[in-house]
Every structure is written in C-alpha cells, then in structure tokens.
C-alpha cells in the first residue's frame, strides 16, 4: 500500500474494486466504516454482491475481466467533465511531457510491436528532450503531443455506451460510480482505492493497476491522507517476503537480479542506475550502487564487491523465470530438485493438473509445512499411481507463528515484531532453524568433498546464530545493516559494527553492509518493529498516523509520496487532514518523502515522486511490456469474439505456453460461463491452515459453486446438489449455491452467465471436502509480472 | 411452535448441565475430573501478530505454566491500533490451529515408488537433503550459458515459498538459495 489500514478512515470516497475486504480482510473493514461514519461514500465494484457490497453506498456489478473498460470509462469521465485536480496534474504528473513523434497507437496496438516475437520495441514510447537532456514540457497541457492530450485522445473511445456494452454494467450505474468518485478531484477531498486479486490476476493485471493509478493521479489522490493505491495483500508476510527478494527478478530491496549481459558490478551499476539531467529530480534510484554494494557485503562480507557479485547467479537476458515458467520447466522435466517451502503449489498455482503432473517428474522435493498438504502428498493424490512415481519427498514440520520470534510486514508496510508463546510443538522447528541447519550441512559436505563453484557456499555469511540456534535478532540487525569501517559523517563517528541509522548513510564502496536497504533503520540500537508507543502530535492524531507503533519502511514514512500532499509552497492541500506541512525550516507530520524544502524553492526543492527518474507521477508509463497507457483486451478465455475498443481481442504480449495442458476456450459453446475465484472469511488460501481447524471447517465444510437463480433455472440446478464444474483443463465437483447476489450480464448484446468458486479446498483433507479451484484455471499470465489469469476463465457447469 | 431466543439458550444450558451429570447415558465425570486437574494458576502473556491475511492484527497469546506449557488462549490485543482487540474467525481460531492433533510434528519421508510416509529423525532428513542438494547442484551447475556468457547458476533446482515466513527467515532463505545458484525462486507474491 502507498498508505495504510487506519488511513482508510480519512477518505471522502472509498472505491473498492476487485476485492471484498469485508470478507477477506475483515478487521480492515472497520476503517472503511469509520470513513463512512464520517460522511465518506463507499463504492463497491464486483461481479458478485458480497458482504462488502451490503455496506456500500453504491454497488456496481462488473463482468470478470472487463476492468479496463470500467476504469477507462472513469478516466474519460474525469477528463471530459474537467474533474481532475489541475495544479496537481500539472505540477506532479507527467501530463505536460512531450511524447516522441514516433509514438503511435492504432487499433489496439502501440507502435513497435513485433508480431513474431509477441513483444514491443519500446523505444518509440519516449519523451522529447531539450538540449540539456531535460524532458520538454507544456504546462498549459495544450500541445497535441503532450501526455495529457494523448491520454485524452486514447480514452475518447471509452464512452458510457461502449463501457456498458463490454462490462455488463448499466450506464446509470457507471454514471453513479464515476460521479461519486470523481468528486475527490477537488483539492480538499481525497479518495482511496482498495484492490486485490480481482484486479491483479489477469493477463492485463498490471494495466488494471495502472488504470487505477491514472485515476488517482488525475484526481490528486496520491500522497494524501485517505488516498493512495492500496493493495489488500493476502498473506501475513507476503509484503515482507516480497521486500526480502523471494522472486526471480528481485534481490532484497527491489534491486534487479543480474542478467548474464552484466558480468560485473561495474556494468550492473552502469545499466541499472538511472540518470536524470533535471537537478530538481531526486531520482532516488540513482543511489542504487550503495544498496547493491551493501547487500553484497551483507551476504559475502569477506569478499571484495566484484567477487561477491560474481557469486550471484545470472539470469539469461529476456528469459522469464516466473511461476508459470517454473512449472512449465518442471512439467518438461527440467528440474531434479524442488523446495515447496511453506507453500502448496499443487492447489495454489493455476492449472493444478499440470502442476501435479510436473511434481511427478522431480527426483526429490522438500516440503516444509504444518500439516499434510496436496503438494507434499501429491504422489498419492487422485489419478496418481505411487508405484510409478520416483520422487523422493521430505516433509519437514515447521512450527506455528506464535511458537517463534521474528518480524513480519503487513500490507501497509508496517513491520511488527512477535514473540514466542508456547514452544514449537513436538519436533517442529522454526523455519529459520531449519534453513540455518540445512545450509550448515550443505557447507560441510562441500568442505569435505569439494564440488561445483564452491566460493558462494564457502563464503556465504552464515553468522546468524547465537551459538546454539538461529537468532532472528542477529539477522534483523544484519538486514538493517552496520558499518564495516570506521566512518565520520557530519559530527558523528561510527565504528565497525555500529548500526547504520538510515539508508542515506549506506555506501557504494563496501564500507557498509545492509541486507535490505529499505529496512535500514528498522533495528538500530532499538528494535523499532517492537515499539508499542501510541503517542501522536495533534496533527498526526487527525489522520491516525501512530508513528511510534512498530515501524514502517522506508524510514518510518507512513504515507509515501507525501510531498504531493502539499502545494509547491509546502501547504497541505487538505488542511483538515494534513500529512506533512512545511514549518518554515523543516517538515512536520509524517516523515517527508525527502527533507528538501518545498518545490517552490527552485534550487533546493524536489519533485514529489522521488522513485521515478524524472520525479513525476507517470500517467504515460513507458516501462511496461504491453503499453504506456492501459488498453482494453479480453481475458484469454472469454465469452465474446470482439469488443468495442479495437480489433485486438487479447493482450498480444500475454504470457502463454505450448503443450498438451494449454488448451483454451474462446467463445467455445462447451464452456459458456465466465468463472471467477474468491475466498471466504472462514478459510484462507489453499486451506492448509484452515481446513484442519474444526471451528472453521464446520462453518465452510465443502467446495461450492455459486450460480445465479437465472442460471439455476436454465440448467435445472437445485440448491445443495452436487454439480460438476469443468474447463478445457480439468474438472471438479462443487455443491450448488443458488443466489441472487450474482446476476447474468448483458455483454456485447448477449446474455453472459457468471459463476464463482472458492479456492480453499484440497483432496488431502477433509474427505469429501472437494479439490482445488485451480484444476480449472489456465497457465496464462500477465506480460509484466507473470501472474496467472485466475479471475476470469470459461467453464461449463452441469449436474453430477 | 415459536421459541424465544432466550428460552432456546436456557434450554440448551439445561441440556448441557444434564449431560454433564450423565443425563445423556454416558459418564462424563472422568472428563470433568481431568479438566479440574488441568486447572492452571499462571499463564505467560506474549504478543504476536496474526498469521492469516495482511491486516496484521495484534494478538495476545496466553501460554500455560508460565510459558512452559501449551497455549491456552489466543485473543486480539486491545492495545493494537489497527484491530483494537478484534479478530476475524480465522484469527480468533488460532488457538485451535496451534493446539491441533493433526499437526505434523516429526519429519517424514516418502521413498521412491512408495505409497506411504515414514517417520524419520531430523538429522537423517537434513543429511539426506543436503546430499541431494549437493549432488543436484554439482550435476546441473552451469558456469556458462549457451551464449558462452558466465552465469554461475544451478539449473536443476527450483524453489517456491514463503509468504508465511518471518522477514528474517525470508532473507536468509533467499541468501541460501542464491548462494546455491538458483534462478527459479518464486512464492505467493507472484500468484
């Protein structure tokens, strides 16, 4: 989240789209209700009428997968009716930037598309620069080649009629939502957007989010209290695990993993360190060399930087190693060994049949978990013959979260420390202990026998124990970072071993180490994540900042991009709910997004979006793989052969695979219904941590499918009877729930039925509980992130 | 017949009371006695954070015998500014997740072509995994790729997980995986 949970109460309008917080983040909903009690309007856009909808002032139904139509319509509405926050747009976004003459858009394709490669040459998606190398701008927003005018032209097609036709939302409902939300374009108003997997799990997932950011930037809702782009993340520490770099493309702190074309640190720094010629742009990623150097020193303190960099595995340039590619490689026999560490891919990954068959190709698997699950036990699952499966599987029991000590980071970037209650049950161990001991044994084998490329194994910093066992405090301090050499900065002298107080003091020369620069400051002489101080200044209390409770990255900033919450003089746009304010010589309120004076100080001020090279919010975003502006495409499995916005049915750059498990259904009469997946309050993710809890499984005991009363009538379904839900890739049984909370959509003039299923069940337990929704979903993904399109696919539903 | 809610609850209580004293036809006195014996005087209170969604609700954990026993209660932390003591059904059921007889508390092993799990000691399991890791790494390590570029990576291993581990555990896990040379590193955040 750019903001945080409590901050939701500050919103004048809460737009909830692609999510159902009342049911899936239930306690967060008290903050939505506080916004409502204070006079805010709550808007819910969703294919189903859920418990969130019951609390909304405005509910609008939306066919799964048609979000960009809806949001494009909202963007057009804001522009046509001049509801955008003009000063904010001119001063803080790239609306005024002049775009290259070579950039074009025609019938669903941007300039530079290579049909054979299914990818774009993005060089035409660029800006015109002056002789100083600074981007040319037209602050009057009149130049036909400025971003603002190109955007206006781009979204001109997204009128109410076309949007209604493709989304299945009535024009009246569209109007109601747009009007209510666009009211936050007034300078003193703010609107927050809460979203989750309903927006991200699509082949246009990233563009869905981009569309929301365009809305928020036009309305001046970034960086302000009650504003922001707020992802409702799904797991207790998925924010932290993402921050710590457990993805193929990210090292801790969102440093890019090195490709083979960057064989040394010098080249890595040259290619990865953005340069801005504009002295008023903070261009914070310009500090990247300090962060990668500090990370390398944290991992390999005994090595020179270039040697430590050599130890990092290099990826092939342009190759995708993300989840779907990982399991495709496994399916084709590409891996001998696999760790399924605290995850259940046999139920959570798209296309479960493919995943489960892939697991059978492994020589060995390590499955760390609390309970027996569909991944570790795949070899005795439905359709499996253990006598033919060679995979050695090790199940290692990890302990429960209340049985160990350490920190986790919630969706609002809040890092919190937790303590040991009961000891680990039986022989279960904290994951940290297991990792610690396993690597010691691997290292020992290499020391004894020698082997391939021993350097990283031998030299990895494994000083993470207190002599007996893994020590989370030691690791937390390493993640914060400390000085490796004596250093005097200003009037303070730091000795080796002293914690680095903030990432501004990290160095590129190997004199500092830090496991993760964005967590620098989290564990100095104090364990900041363990703080429980609820003191607030009157200014902070107005917005519920709680700066002394635990710690947020970066540097305890609670609302990021907050330099956009003030005018160029440093005066809050919303004096009744200020985030920061310039007090003449310093900022008060939240930690400012950089200590520099307000932008009106032409010499010392800085633009607010400090993580972008040029310092401005990107309406036109040249970095994405499928276009600089969000554009409508249907999900790869869809119920229509065409849509109103262009002749391009699907995202031409979507991640797809070839093989026997990749069949897809487009306007296929065998699979006529749109299906989506979701969660219920009593269960969580694949259900490994809820299906075994009697109190919870009793409330939601079995797999079900929700169908509209119209569809039930059409097919003769009765409530409570067993149905079969099937797709081009698999099938499952589900108990029928007939509901009026789903209504058929009229899409492109025809009736389209939508159904929905939870994804909490798995064959391991309980007996007759049902199996995973992902038996139905397809291995297709977003071209930027690779996230599978599990929120819109085509199925048939019939009697069992 | 209509039945007032209060009446219904009164009836249920009566039935429970009767059952406790044998009204159902079997003797619950031993269970009662056992419960009495388990009565404890001191619990240790610690704070934690819920393990389910990403709201990060604060918990108070009560552990029996001054912290040496098992958890006897897990409830919301009223001082926590986000949840203010509330918990959803999942958080409120954490006690039953932890004190659960279906938890696996010993390492297990499935041999090739076997149809069952066998219990194994930790050392045996970790030794054998280390062996497998080394053999796979040595056999599939790539100093260079097909383009003759230096890559220093292991092709034959992949990992997924975990958004359920603490920050410190995630960090040392990615560190270990990268020291081993993995490029296929993924987890819940991707999907």
Please describe what this structure looks like:
The complex is a heterodimer of chains A (800) and B (191). By secondary structure, chain A is of the alpha/beta class. In chain A, a hairpin with a 4-residue loop joins β22 (580-582) and β23 (587-589). In chain A, α4 (67-80) runs antiparallel to α7 (160-167) and α4 (67-80) packs parallel to α10 (205-218). Chain A is globular. With 191 residues, chain B is an alpha+beta fold. Chain B has helices spanning 5-20, 29-37, 89-92, 94-98, 122-140, 167-180; strands spanning 43-49, 58-64, 71-76, 108-110, 118-119, 141-144, 150-154, 157-160, 185-186. A three-stranded antiparallel sheet of chain B has the order 1-2-3. A two-stranded antiparallel sheet of chain B has the order 4-5. In chain B, a hairpin with an 8-residue loop joins β1 (43-49) and β2 (58-64).
Mean of pLDDT of chain B = 87
What is the structural class of chain B? alpha+beta
Shape summary of chain A: globular
Rg of chain B, Å, rounded: 26 Å
Fraction of residues in H or I helices of chain A: 10-25%
Count of distinct strands of chain B = 9
Strand line-up of the largest beta sheet of chain A: 25-27-26-31-24-30
Structural class assignment of chain A:
alpha/beta
How many β strands of chain A by DSSP? 31
The parts of chain A where pLDDT drops under 50 for at least 5 residues are: none
> Ends of chain A: how far apart?
43 Å
* Major sheet description of chain A: 6 strands, mixed
Concise structural overview:
The complex is a heterodimer of chains A (about 800) and B (about 190). With about 800 residues, chain A is an alpha/beta fold.
